[in-house]
Amino acid sequence: MRSRETRGRRLALAVAVTAVLLAGGASGQPRATDAVRPTDAEVARALERVKADPNLSTDRTIKMLRWRGSKETAQDPRWPAWVLWIAGLFRWVDQSARLLVWITVAGLAALLGVYLVRLARTRGGLTISDAFVPPTHVRDLDIRPETLPPANGPAARAPWGRGGNRARGRGSRRLR
What's the structural domain count of the chain? Predict the structure, then answer.
């Protein structure tokens, strides 16, 4: 029984809340029919204020440093158009020198990279097919295996077996 009563109460509460929300202006905003339309004069004043804002303006003022006494003059009718064009070109190069230097540096770096790649291709490095070639002579001595005596190993090992670290020969001395 209790569950039916609580269900009924919940249902009645939900219906009451829905009725209040639908009946009153719960959003707190005026309806579209109540809004007042701005006049053309108010719209024009608002547009002027927006256009006067430097952050939203389409024009931009840039301050530049100039040499003292230098005045930019309008086109001089005494000079032909091609002379004025060349003067304008040099003025542009003067104003954009930093950018031109960086473009030149980037171009030279690219050319250096191409040169190094081509140099590496033509030189080719050491390849795996290059085999080790043992030496054949030490100063005047021919050390090829076919020119050495057949008992070379035991003859060189004999002094070590007797306790000496060098074979006695001409110019050798015994260390103690």
Answer: 1
**β-strand partners of 137:** 142
The total number of residues written for the chain in this structure? 176
| Distance of alpha carbon 99 from alpha carbon 117, whole angstroms | 27
Q: Is residue 32 part of a domain?
A: no
Residues 156 and 167 sit within 8 Å (Cβ to Cβ) = yes
User: 159-173, pLDDT tens digit by residue?
Assistant: 777 877 655 555 455
Distance between first and last Cα of the chain: 118
Residue 106 lies in a domain: yes
User: pTM higher than 0.85, yes or no?
Assistant: no
Q: Give the H/E segment covering residue 138.
A: strand 137-138
Q: Tokens for 56?
A: 């939203």
Residue 167: CB partners within 8 Å, gap ≥ 6? 156, 158, 159
d(CA 95, CA 67) in angstroms, rounded, equals 13
